[in-house]
Amino acid sequence: MAFTLKNLPFRTSKPRTNGMTFVLDKGYSVRECEDFCEVASDSVDVVKLGWGTSVVTQNLENKIKVYSDAGIPVYFGGTLFEAYLLRNQLSDYVKLLNKHNIDTLEVSNGTIWLSDEKKQKIIKDLSKDFKVYSEVGSKNPNEIVPPYKWVKVIREELEAGAEKVICEARESGTVGVFRPNGEIRSGLIEEITDQIPVEKLIFEAPQKEQQVWFIKKYGSNVNLGNIPPKEVISLETIRQGLRSDTLMDFVPIKDPSFQEMMKKNSISRQVDINLSPKI
Q: Tens digits of per-residue pLDDT, 73-114?
């Protein structure tokens, strides 16, 4: 029987350009990929094979095929791009993508030094043949990039041809747009989104509290990345107000049933107060 819940928030459908969920695969087996796709493929837009895991993953071609058959694009992690670039093997990296029929890639410099000008040229060149997601922000928790620099670099990389720009947080959610304790650098994010369209950004948000913050701030269709596979269904419930964290965020206040519920809750709380023992 289909669920008939009223007033669920609007969710974009695949193929999405907004409300995208980017999943971080850190080494799933072919069987795990199959199981994951069986329950969550409708909620997944892109899978990133984290950092250099593709180099040491057995049955890589079969694994990519599972995702492809489920309608999920795959790309290699930005650190692998940096490893090839560091060795002056960018042309070999392109050959690798073509070998595996991968049409998407991440251009990043979270670990290596790469001038803004050179990075933009790479984006411009590769975007002619690939869908390019660029990443901004350092993986070093001690390197603090000022907000104006974030905005400047993001804008320039979009102009160079990046499809969207990823705001760095790592798999831990403790660098970039987050502090080392996982706390959100809300002032930084607000300054970025004041000047860059939110739909052009992908916020890495591996922790549930971070996902909730972005959805409350920017709505159900904010782009989120570095989502662990086991958290995809949970994230989708948060997007749709089906978990307590956002349950009250997507019900119209003017809805009669909502008003009645709030009235009853208010009466119930008053009764509890009146019945509480006097101290």
A: 999 999 999 999 999 999 999 999 999 999 999 999 999 999
Q: And the tokens for 152? A: 């400047």
Nearest Cα to Cα of residue 189 among 179, 180, 181: 179
Nearest CA among 142, 98, 105 for reference residue 125: 105
- Residue found by looking up tokens 């928030």 in the block: 9
Q: What is the DSSP letter of 13?
A: -
Helix (H, G, I), strand (E, B) or coil at 32: helix
The 10 Å Cβ neighbour count of residue 183 is 12
Strands 164-167 and 46-49, by their bridges, are unpaired
Q: In this structure, which amino acid lies at residue 38?
A: E
Sheet holding 21-25, edge to edge: 74-76, 46-49, 21-25, 224-227, 201-204, 164-167, 131-136, 104-107
Q: What sections of 202-246 are H helices per DSSP?
A: 208-218, 232-239
Which tens digits make up the pLDDT trace of 204-227? 999 999 999 999 999 999 999 999
Plot region of 176 (φ>0 → left; ψ -120 to 50 → alpha; else → beta): left
- Residue 74 has what DSSP assignment? E
Confidence of residue 258 (pLDDT cuts 50, 70, 90): low
Q: Please, how many CA atoms are within 13 Å of residue 73, restricted to the half-sphere of its CB?
A: 20
pLDDT above 90 as % of the chain? 77
Q: What is the pLDDT of residue 1?
A: 46
Cis check: omega of the bond before 15, within 30 degrees of 0: yes
Among 199, 204, 232, which residue's Cα sits nearest to residue 43? Answer: 232
